[in-house]
Amino acid sequence: MVEEQPTEQDLLEGRDDIWQWLEGFVGVGGLWIRLDASPSEACPVVVVGLDEGDQLALEVVDANLAERAHSAGSSITLFTNEGVKYAQSNSLHIEHCHVLENAATVYTGLPECIVINARRGEFHARLRKDLDCPVTISGPGLIRPVQGELADLSVGGCRVHLSSHACYMQPECPDYSVEVAFPSGELFQSSAEVRYLDLSEENFSVTAGFKFHSCSAQHESRVWQLVRDIERESARAADSERDFEPSELFRPVSSVDNEVLDSRKPLSAAAVRLRHIADSLCFQWYYLRSGKSLSMESLLWAAEDLIVLAASDAEEALFATLDDPGHPALIWHDVCLAVRMACVAHHCGLPEGELKAAVACALVHDIGYLVNGSCSLEHASRPVYQAEAVAVIKSALAHCNWIPDATVEAVLDSGACSPPNCSRTPLGKLALLLGLLDWQCRDVAYKTAQPWNYALQRVCSDYPDLADWADITVACFGKMPVASRVCDPDDKNFWVRALDADQRPAVIVPCGKRCLPNRESLQRQMMELQTKSLRELLVPVNTHI
Fold this sequence. Notes:
Structural class: alpha+beta
Number of strands: 19
Helix content: 25-40%
Largest sheet: 6 strands, antiparallel, barrel
Radius of gyration: 33 Å
Strand content: 15-25%
Distance between the termini: 66 Å
Shape: elongated
Strand order of the largest sheet: 2-3-4-8-7-5
Number of domains: 4
């Protein structure tokens, strides 16, 4: 980008346009006058008003300067350096001057013209709230492109309102693509780097600042045209007395040409709540990565919301775990695990304080892996990653007064270490259950050929000591839990949506494109199990409905 940014001029002529511009300074300041004969002499003024004879009344802060200019017949120039704009009038003559104690009121004719110079590289055109310009960001750290709305645009970069997924972007990385879609259908694309991320916990949104780089003169010229169109559109909408047509950039294409058919079904209330909880975990990860502390207030809210959701409608909460919003695998895994943890702990009648602490620990128990640069469930299952990742979370929770240290130790160690190492105390039993659920979630998540039931049997085969706890999970979730996959006699795969009184699938929905291997393959997998009692206890996924 060139070092000296060129400027663009706007020339205001005509009484109405000039007064409309000056009216913005009435009673608020922002304007100055200087003596044409001595440009170094300047002082602030406030526009008082315009009389019927088009006499412009200005209140001058420096009464002495005003009186000298009037006495000497010196001409003056109005100017302002408002923000990144520099504007000035033609030379004006002071016709009258009334001096008061601390100020003076002078009267001049209305300027014949106002020249406004906007410095390209610094000027930011801000979009009104009713101007929708969708933005798509793609690049390092993002599992899928992030959608957002353009907030402002300049030759040097832009500011964009994004979802929580923007937390995963890497600051100062120049490899991001920014694509803006204007109402006319025109697309603008540029490579950019992230300058800053501003997080809002109120709605789990991120405001990101981008700096365009490797920009040619043609690129700068095109962006400046867009900036000017945005400014003109804002001015057009602000002028309620005139009926101007929108600029071509903001003139929507016809409804037929612009029709977008969205086949996605609206999210359930439970799915929306789980997405918000995942967003909050995304923020927690960002805080740790930035060297900050976990937000205990946000963690408490997430744990309490999960507990209420599990207690009010466990089946709805479990089914909502299928709606992966696109966060890293470990983030969504922690949410899914915490949902099951809340369901089991509620089923077992765990006291409220312990329940809240356990669910909170389950929510963040894998974030340490993300802080250390690993985002896969497969990496999280390797001992070489576990000690350091667990230490990160233990340190982050050390000063939380509503999560006992014993709960932190039990819950985190259940996921990082062999579950049978836990004690037989009530807290140890909780840790064993969490360890069992953790292993189940991992198998189902990154070994997609393994159904929930097979995952449970695999864990109990590897750790016979956990077989005693399988009954509890079956009693809580059923033999074919909600959100597990089953197939019908025609080998079509379905998600279990609800269970009947006998814990058999009562409602199923099609799996769509995400299908299991064929039934023969699953039967071979089930035959490999060597624990007869577990085969009798659990019904494999390929059992006909």
